[in-house]
Amino acid sequence: MHIPPAAQNPIGAGEVLASGGGWSAGLATPSPSMTVDPDVVTPGFIGFVAIALIAIVVVFLIIDMLRRIRRAGYRADINEQLDAEAEAELNRREDEAAAAPVTDHDASDDTDADGPAAR
């Protein structure tokens, strides 16, 4: 029967685990060095074209947005003018109706030339 080294250690298994257990000593650590020269790596012509197209699309979107905002403002102004004209026309008609004399056409139908209507 084989006894693990942690069981034979008088200090305890905690020291063996804290030291990595001995099994990770053989693994290679990653190196932080670059394998590619950063001065040579560039986006190239395709990257330039992609960024240029994005910039052109953004400019057209901004122009379209400004046009739509301006158009909405013009529509609001015209709607205000139409509402004001409609209200002025309504007020004019009300004033004309209030100034006109009130005539009762139904009262003349109840009487004839000789006197009150006989029923």
Q: What strand line-up does the widest sheet have?
A: 1-2
β-strand percent reads: under 5%
Span of the ends, CA to CA: 135 Å
Number of strands: 2
Q: Explain this structure to me?
A:
With 119 residues, the chain is mostly helical. It has a domain at 63-98. It is built from four helices and two strands. It has helices at 5-8, 13-18, 44-99, 105-110, and strands spanning 111-112, 115-116. A two-stranded antiparallel ribbon has the order 1-2. A hairpin with a 2-residue loop joins strand 1 and strand 2 (115-116). It is rod-shaped, with a radius of gyration of 48 Å. 0% of the residues are buried. The mean pLDDT is 77.
Key words describing this protein structure:
3% strand, two-stranded antiparallel sheet, mainly alpha, rod-shaped, 61% helix, 4 helices, 119 residues, 2 strands
Please render the helix and strand layout as text.
Elements: H1 5-8, H2 13-18, H3 44-99, H4 105-110, E1 111-112, E2 115-116
Antiparallel strand pairs: 1-2
Q: How would you sum up this structure in a few lines?
A:
The chain has helices spanning 5-8, 13-18, 44-99, 105-110, and strands spanning 111-112, 115-116. By secondary structure, the protein is mainly alpha-helical.
